[in-house]
Design brief:
Layout: E1 2-5, H1 15-19, E2 23-25, E3 34-38, H2 43-49, H3 51-55, E4 58-62, E5 73-80, E6 83-89
Parallel strand pairs: 1-2
Antiparallel strand pairs: 3-4, 4-5, 5-6
């Protein structure tokens, strides 16, 4: 199974990944590897923190560069009353 893509991919592979059959991919990364937008309307942030906090939050898509969604995930950067928080959603 391939997952990391690009000429430096093997330098990021953890030994545990190799032991479990993961290998760097051979394809080229897509053009939309990283994308961010406001989390103001994101249900997870609105439901958890409320609309006012969601208006100040950002959602960042990390795309593994393949046509599969298997390793794509979101990072949320949320300014809560207790300070900045970073969440991940796979």
């Amino acid at each position: 199974m391939g997952f990391l893509v690009g000429p430096d991919a093997s330098s990021y592979l953890d030994p545990a990944g190799s032991e479990n059959g993961l290998v760097p991919g051979s394809g080229a990364p897509s053009e939309s590897v990283l994308r961010s937008d406001s989390a103001a309307a994101d249900e997870l942030v609105v439901r958890t923190c409320g609309e006012e906090v969601a208006k100040k939050a950002w959602r960042v898509l990390i795309d593994d560069g393949t046509s599969s969604a298997s390793l794509d995930f979101y990072l949320y950067v949320v300014d809560t009353p207790g300070g900045w928080k970073v969440w991940a959603k796979y």
